[in-house]
Design brief:
By secondary structure, the protein is α+β, with helices and mostly antiparallel strands. The protein has helices at 13-22, 30-43, 51-59, 89-95, 102-106, 118-127, 133-146, 158-164, 204-212, 243-247, 252-255, 257-272, 315-319, and strands at residues 68-74, 83-88, 170-176, 185-192, 225-231, 237-239, 290-293, 298-303, 307-313, 329-334, 337-342, 345-351, 362-366, 369-375. It folds into 4 domains: 8-43, no CATH class; 51-112 and 169-260, no CATH class; 118-164, no CATH class; 274-375, Immunoglobulin-like. α7 (133-146) packs across α8 (158-164).
Length: 390
């Protein structure tokens, strides 16, 4: 008698179970139930996948590079590898499809629930004179969270700021901006905007990358960061950048980055400058540089609500055969003074009109031009002059 013809009523329990399984019937045994219960019992101990792990999973099986946009993850922990991630095209389309979509995507990665340090928040508020800048933006966001019409920065408590940034807050730092001389391509670092207030560790590899692009001293980046690339033509959109593109210092974009940053600033000055008899309301504003013939060198300076920029031409020193590179330049930022030395020779010493936030000051060098960017301690303050005494 065949198995199909056998009467199920005459089968043993094991034979009946196998007979049903052979015909596609799912049977849950006591051992199956115990295994399932064990899995669910342990699920509470399984941490949620990070955004990096989610992207890596989505990247599996995507095939060629054309299936998504590559970008880079740089952990603050130097024992962890720098990795290339892929944002699949279906997500690019959903988030964009034009514009830089990476800030929107990585935003949730920075929603880590870590507390805001109250002492650091107070210190930043004092530096910014209790108004303006990012703190004012966060105050508005916190006000929206609480339903209040307005919320003064003085009321911006750590818990309110944590609430305002609970869904993540991204800051974008330009390693190099798109221009006609770099194929209209820019490279950016994306970091936690309140990483410093969370007391996240310094990301030394991200700082080193910025230094290779001409930023001196190296900016501080807090916590894990991402690096992405965009093209501004024909419309702004993300393009690939991989791990090797930021580790190999011979890559064209990195070799040219310092020069591109200086040229970008010069172009910005030209675009925003005024001509003819029209004059800015305040010295150094609206893109109109103030030229100064100092005792040791000539320089120009400009300002906006947040920064003061000093540009020193080193053309004559280069023509005289003097060594001019990042090892020969030293810029000392003090709260009320900037001192510049070239080959241990002082070329500029300025006693400033008002205070600086020295942690936000940096400089870039491109052969014959030294560009010094000073962050004002009191953002929103326009200085009537650069130096303390007119």
């Amino acid at each position: 008698m065949s198995e199909d013809a056998k009467n199920p009523d005459n089968m043993t329990p094991n034979e009946r179970e196998q007979w049903l399984r052979d015909r596609g019937v799912h049977i849950e045994t006591p051992s199956d139930r115990r295994r399932t219960e064990s899995i669910f019992a342990n699920m509470e101990n399984i941490r949620p996948l990070s955004i990096v792990e989610q992207v890596q999973r989505l990247s599996i099986g995507t095939g060629s590079d054309g299936d998504g946009i590559n970008f880079v993850f740089i952990p603050h922990d130097t024992s962890r590898d720098i990795t290339t991630l892929t944002l699949p095209n279906r997500l690019v389309e959903a988030l964009g499809p034009t514009g830089d979509v990476l800030p929107t995507y990585v935003k949730s990665y920075f929603a880590d629930g870590k507390p805001i340090d109250g002492a650091l928040l107070q210190d930043q508020a004092l530096k910014q004179n209790l108004i303006g800048g990012d703190l004012d933006k966060f105050a508005s966001a916190a006000a929206a969270e609480t339903g209040e019409d307005s919320l003064a920065t003085t009321k911006l408590t750590p818990s309110a700021l944590a609430s305002a940034t609970a869904s993540g807050s991204v800051e974008t730092f330009p390693l190099v901006r798109p221009s006609s001389t770099n194929h209209n391509q820019g490279v950016y670092i994306y970091l936690d905007e309140v990483g410093q207030l969370k007391k996240l560790p310094n990301n030394l590899r991200a700082s080193s990358l910025a230094q290779k692009c001409g930023y001196y001293p190296a900016p501080n980046f807090y916590g894990d960061v991402f690096v992405g690339r965009v093209s501004s033509k024909p419309v702004l959109h993300n393009i690939d950048i991989k791990r090797e593109d930021i580790l190999d210092t011979t890559k064209e974009w990195m070799v040219r980055a310092t020069h591109e940053n200086v040229e970008w600033q010069k172009a910005l000055n030209e675009v925003t400058g005024r001509t003819g008899e029209s004059q800015p309301n305040h010295a150094g504003t609206e893109g109109v540089a103030v030229h100064v013939q100092g005792n040791m060198c000539s320089y120009s300076w400009m300002q906006n609500d947040e920064e003061v920029e000093i540009i020193i031409s080193l053309k004559k020193k280069v023509e005289d055969g003097m060594k001019v590179d990042k090892t020969s330049i030293k810029v000392d930022f003090q709260p009320r003074k900037v001192i510049v030395k070239c080959n241990n020779e002082s070329i500029l010493e300025v006693q400033l009109y008002s205070k600086l936030d020295v942690d936000g000051c940096t400089w870039t060098l491109d052969k014959e031009s030294l560009v010094i960017t000073c962050e004002k301690a009191s953002q929103g303050e326009i200085w009537p002059r650069l130096e303390l005494s007119g």
